[in-house]
Write a structure and sequence with these properties.
- Strand 1 and strand 2 form a beta hairpin.
- The chain has a four-stranded antiparallel beta sheet with strand order 1-2-3-8, with no helix packed on it. A four-stranded antiparallel beta sheet has the order 6-5-9-10, with no helix packed on it. A two-stranded antiparallel ribbon has the order 4-7.
- About 11% of the residues have low confidence.
- It has one domain: Sandwich (Immunoglobulin-like), CATH 2.60.40.1230.
- It is 24% helix and 24% strand.
- It is α+β, with helices and mostly antiparallel strands and 220 residues long.
- Helix 2 runs antiparallel to helix 3.
- The protein is built from four helices and ten strands.
């Protein structure tokens, strides 16, 4: 009887481990390889300032496999943003503002990290501190659910476009996230407008207007 128990116990333990593995199988996010923005199909070129801004959708397989979280299934559209400065002076993007305008004129501002986490990590705004979010996840608390939320937060922070400037003859990239839940055909015929790009003297450049192309045709 004891020998049977000895044989069964490892099997039970193995099955238990297999059941737990998917909960922790969260890969580290790696930013996609970035080329000069001019090489992408969906872009706007400001020739006078020598600035090009491009976008690339990451809403279908296999491209969205770069993420561990399937954002589109959560009603969020990830857009890869690429800014190339071919000029001789730096530009500032600290005041960059992105807006997705759909074919039916719905205007969707880019989401902040807190907004994304409310959706994918189910982190709610604090009722005692308006405009703020409850602390992202408390280390050591919440078990597997908390661990997953922490990993999702790390992924969003690594993925988001977070550059403050684009130096001369260089490129910066990162992801924008838009809330497309309940939006009918959010991509078809849509445009992304980017404002707040400033030259080295602090003067704001004219806004960038980039047509949103389907994921299969937006790759460079």
């Amino acid at each position: 009887m004891s020998s049977v128990r000895c044989r069964v116990l490892p099997v039970v333990l193995a099955c238990s481990l297999l059941a737990v593995i998917p909960l922790w199988a969260f890969k580290d996010f790696v930013m996609p390889h970035t080329e000069n923005a001019a090489t992408y199909a969906s872009k706007d070129v400001h020739s006078d300032e020598k600035i090009t801004i491009a976008i690339d959708l990451y809403n279908t397989a296999p491209k969205d496999d770069v993420f561990s979280t399937h954002y589109v299934q959560q009603g969020i559209l990830p857009v890869f943003l690429v800014i190339t400065n071919d000029g001789d002076k730096p530009i500032s993007v600290t005041k960059l503002h992105a807006q997705l305008v759909t074919a039916n004129r719905s205007k969707l501002d880019g989401l902040g990290v807190e907004d994304v986490m409310r959706r994918v990590g189910h982190v709610n705004a604090s009722s005692t501190s308006p405009g703020k979010v409850t602390p992202f996840p408390i280390p050591g608390g919440g078990g597997g659910k908390n661990k997953k939320a922490q990993q999702q937060l790390e992924e969003v922070n690594r993925a988001k476009f977070s550059a403050f400037a684009v130096e001369p003859h260089s490129t910066q990239s990162g992801f924008l996230f838009f809330d497309i839940e309940d939006i009918l055909n959010p991509v078809k015929g849509a445009h992304i407008y980017l404002s707040g790009v400033r030259d080295s003297g602090g003067t704001e450049l004219m806004y960038f207007d980039i047509a949103v192309l389907p994921s299969d045709s937006s790759s460079h």
